[in-house]
Automatic annotation (TrEMBL):
InterPro entries named in the record: Glyas_Bleomycin-R_OHBP_Dase (IPR029068), Glyas_Fos-R_dOase_dom (IPR004360), VOC_core (IPR037523)
Protein name: VOC family protein
Pfam name, any one: Glyoxalase
Superkingdom of the organism of origin: Bacteria
Organism in which the protein naturally occurs: Herbiconiux sp. A18JL235
Length: 160
């Protein structure tokens, strides 16, 4: 097995680019309300602006439509209300993160809810049409992996 650190084609960073017509609103939401520190910002002339915000460790979550609908249901969202691409941010305290965001006029789509996945999730409406799930892990990955229904695809195939 190749060490991922020695492979020059292994991604070192994930950047999610959100194109927005109201840059200041989006910057306020992600930087000020959700607390993502600004790493760099660049501007040329006129409306040519970009801000790069630190969002912790990045992962890509691939989900079937069935699972995405299940997440919507668990989070208390109406069926079919979520876009096919949204942001999920892990926080230490979902309730506090929602309070901070709503103090800055963010709209709560679904309040903090304990999920069968052993997390505390809430859904906010972000700028530029993006929905944001804030989630707090309530147990470790190791604890979760001992529970029924939390197998990887490889493990599920071996048990089939």
């Amino acid at each position: 097995m190749t060490n991922a650190n020695s492979n020059p084609t292994t991604p070192k960073q994930l950047r999610l680019i959100i194109e927005t017509d109201d840059f200041d609103e989006a910057l306020h939401f992600y930087r000020d309300l959700l607390g993502m520190p600004e790493q760099a910002a660049f501007a040329t002339e006129g409306d040519d602006r970009v801000a790069i915000l630190h969002a912790g460790v990045a992962t890509i979550e691939l989900a079937t439509s069935t699972h995405a609908k299940n997440i919507d249901e668990v989070e208390g969202m109406p069926a079919g209300s979520a876009p096919s691409l949204r942001i999920a941010l892990e926080v230490e305290d979902t309730v506090a993160a929602v309070a901070r965001a709503t103090a800055g006029d963010a709209t709560v789509l679904a309040p903090p809810t304990r999920t069968p996945f052993r997390s505390l999730n809430a859904r906010l409406q972000g700028p530029a049409g993006w929905q944001v799930t804030l989630f707090q892990e309530l147990e470790t990955l190791q604890e979760r992996q001992t529970r029924a229904g939390f197998l990887t695809d490889d493990e599920r195939d071996r048990h089939a």
